[in-house]
Amino acid sequence: GRIIGGIVAQDGQFPWQVAIYFDTPDGTYFCGGALIDLNATVFTLHLGANSLVTDDPNRVTIGASYSVPHPDYNPNSLANDIGLIRIDTVIELNEYIQIIPLPTSALGSGQAVTLSGWGATGDGVVNDLTYVDLSTISNADCQAIYGEVIEDSMVCVVGKSNEGPCSGDNGGPLVITDGVNNAVHVGVVSWTSASGCETDHPSGFTRTASYISWIQSVIS
């Protein structure tokens, strides 16, 4: 997994970022996530860390009780590609571990957004949290490329020079940010172009605003 064109984040720059590890019969898998509530995010969590190496002093590792995928998730179309995990462990917030608010309004086109996640800035894998600034496009423009598979509950983004997510960054948060204290969670990494991560094709995200009622019903 890698964020194409990513910049290494500073300590505490994305304090809601979560690294998620989960075990299956086929092996251990990794994806990204965000802390949206003291009782909800996703699988085994490594909170507060900018690095995936074990000696990061800001790391907090906790377990999760159970996952809640969206009941209408479609693995073929990737509609409703969103899920939550309930946390039973008490989380202490600090400058490196913070909850990110959910949106209160719809996300428009031409909006400056930021994606963060672990991976690489090129072809190799790295341990540092990286980020990239992107821009949303209209669903109509995205449908012109991908067709009717683009639903209202999805949002597409592009970079200035092919920046964006790649495989392994699924679940990572897309945010509107004006400093740490003014960030809002607006999307979740869902898919990238079948033509490859470093094309100029848009990447697809699940719109957080489309699932506020469902999220609140799970975490309440």
From TrEMBL:
Where it sits in the cell: the answer is: Secreted, Extracellular space
Some GO term, biological process aspect, for this entry: which one? proteolysis
Q: Which GO terms describe its molecular function?
A: serine-type endopeptidase activity
User: What domain of life does the native source organism fall in?
Assistant: Eukaryota
- Keyword annotations of the record: Disulfide bond, Hydrolase, Protease, Serine protease
According to the entry, every stretch annotated as the Peptidase S1 domain falls at 3-220
Residue ranges the record marks as coiled coil: none
Q: Which SMART domains match?
A: Tryp_SPc
Q: What is this protein called?
A: Brachyurin-like
